[in-house]
Amino acid sequence: MAIPLGETLTDDIRMAMQVHSALARTLDNPRLSASSGFMVTDRSTRDQLTTLASVIQACGLDGQVASGVDVAAEHLSIDGGYRFEGATHTSADFGELLLSIVDDHGLAYVEDPFDPADTTAWRTFTPRLGTAGASTVGDDLFASDAQRIQPGLAHAALLKPSQAGTVSATLDAASEAAFAGLRTVVSHRSGETEDTAICDLAIAVGADHIKIGGPRRGDRITKYNRFLRLLGVASTGRPPTPARPPKGEPACLVPVSSSS
Prior knowledge:
This protein has 260 residues and is α/β, with parallel strands linked by helices. The protein contains 8 helices and 11 strands. The longest helix is centred in the first third of the chain and has 18 residues, at 9-26. It is globular. The model is unreliable at 234-248 and 256-260 (pLDDT under 50). Belongs to the enolase family. One of its GO terms (molecular function) is magnesium ion binding.
């Protein structure tokens, strides 16, 4: 995924759309995934990351847009190890492989690098990834559940209101994440509607990032538009494009490529 690092959320949206459009041309308009990322099945993970980096550079956004991956390792877990691109790895070996990918491609964000039950691997991997300048993010690890959130496993917790079940449960999870010293990422789901409540929620809880999908299709575009409206509401007393980081302006995480 692409992670814009602009000074304002408006800048982030502009860069996200620029990279997404440029990558679509590079990949010759591939099929879209449910989250409006691009479905790429004939390239390795490293090849995809190299392509993304090349597109970011060609857009003149090197250093302004970072790269990240959602490993979704719960789907790779098999017999206590991990099956990845035709090979089976132990937890330790898989962690080393991920660290080499992070180092070689300068990744800033790694989501769900291990199965939620593999907590030893999480505790070993997270500080090493932090030393490399990247962050681990727990999605299925925490499952948007305040009772499952604890320090030491990841740098950030993903929050999905539809997974938490209620707004109150989502707010409880956000509070627990803050208490544990974790950053927060408010996230969409693969099957989305045109509801834009997660945009308001991200600002309300002071989320560090938000995942709302690629800037294609109505269910995603409505969320980008909602952010632009929120930034332009005169009644808040805030200028239309305030400099970041005031708390309350989450950065966009934009899925641009997937191997599903």
